[in-house]
Request: fold
Amino acid sequence: VSNCKHSFVKAIVVGVAGAATVAPALAADAGHGHAVFLKWCAPCHGPGIGNNGAPMKPGTYALLAKYNNSLPPLIEERTDLQPDFIKVVVRNGITIMPFSRKTEISDRDLDDLVAWLTRNSK
Ligand code: HEC
Reply:
């Protein structure tokens, strides 16, 4: 049984490695990712005031509270965000942040969005 499980894991690793080799043809487009961000994320994660007189937009405000300025409250200014973390948060939501469906943000759009948000990452 453990042998069987091992080859299953191996198949996944080979599959991922195979996908990586074709990636250059489908290179993510950070410019389009910026447009995706402005449409779907900026209403909560942009700069400026929030609704009903709130001092900030809800995502910006929540991340200010969460990190107390040890990280920038604007996610566009972060340089520590990992692609997989962004994808999990976008697909599943986190606390009061709603998840996004593939009919709203396609996998391709999400790759572009990740390219935008990680453009300055170390
Ligand atoms: C309805 C408002 C709203 C929208 C729309 C929204 N977010 Fe959020 N987001 C939040 C809030 C609030 C949090 C903080 C959640 C918490 O308490 O940890 C958050 C947290 C995050 C985090 C976690 C950051 C961290 O370090 O904990 C990421 C990444 C993120 N959002 C990315 C996005 C992206 C990308 C989009 C657009 C696809 C988006 N969000 C759209 C409200 C929103």
About this structure: The two ends are 41 Å apart (CA to CA). Residues 21 and 64 are 39 Å apart (CA to CA).
